[in-house]
Amino acid sequence: MHVSEIAMTDVSPSLSFNPTKNQIVSISSISMIRERLLSLPRGSWVFIDLDETLWRHTGISVRSIPCGNDQYRCVGSSIYKLVEEEMVTLISELKNKGIHVLSITSRGSVSSTRAETFEHLKTLGVEFSRILPESVVMLKEHGLDTDAIYEDGVVFVSDFSKGPIILELLKRAGEFRISIPPEIALIDDLEENINSAKEALEGCLEYHIPFFGIHYTAEKHVVHKKASEGETPKLRNLILEMHRSISRSTY
């Protein structure tokens, strides 16, 4: 299939799209493809990445927890903020049009990671489409808490590439006799994830689903703005490293 590569960072959002062909675009704000997404056929799937796409890490919260004998231990958790407030409104609008909005994240699938993820989604007022009749569905086993798992509209791919796991979700949907989506879109800050999904769908003989890949760079623009306000790249990297350390020690 022909894939149209369109750099939209400095292009008017009125640019026309051809929904019959696979496309990949690069945008710096979700408003640039809002109308295109809202024009998707009813029943389409829109996947949204979490880290550096839906939200960004802005700090670390540390609290003490009693653990007996007058002893306490410190527990840290990341603080998240939406990359763009408009994303929450768009998710609601898409769902109201009968478009299924899901998340697909490279986060691990261990239960504590999933619980922490849903806690933050609730805090930010985000709820994804529950397209499967079961709350938790194994998509691909790997072992050692690195399985790919679907839970209530969020796909945790762990160590797997996103493209093959999207195909696994399509397979599970078919097993539940759920209609195959007429189009699939993926919003992600990493080009490798966009390419993984495109290649998986193009290489699949069972499904012929148009793909719309959105390389979303808004978070980088937010970081640049924060740097001008005093949040230096060094401080930003420190926050991210602290988040990773907390993830390794508490998940």
Q: Secondary-structure map with pairings?
A:
Elements: E1 3-7, E2 22-27, H1 34-38, E3 45-48, E4 55-66, E5 72-82, H2 86-96, E6 100-105, H3 111-124, E7 136-140, E8 148-151, E9 154-156, H4 162-175, E10 184-188, H5 191-202, E11 211-216, H6 218-228, H7 233-250
Parallel strand pairs: 1-2, 2-11, 3-6, 3-10, 6-9, 10-11
Antiparallel strand pairs: 4-5, 7-8, 8-9
Helix pairs in contact: 4-5
Describe the structure.
By secondary structure, this protein is α/β, with parallel strands linked by helices. It has one domain (18-250): Rossmann fold (3-Layer(aba) Sandwich), CATH 3.40.50. Helix content is 34%, strand content 27%. The chain contains 7 helices and 11 strands. The protein has helices at 34-38, 86-96, 111-124, 162-175, 191-202, 218-228, 233-250; strands at residues 3-7, 22-27, 45-48, 55-66, 72-82, 100-105, 136-140, 148-151, 154-156, 184-188, 211-216. The strands form 2 sheets. Strands 1-2-11-10-3-6-9-8-7 form a 9-stranded mixed beta sheet. The longest helix is centred in the last third of the chain and has 18 residues, at 233-250.
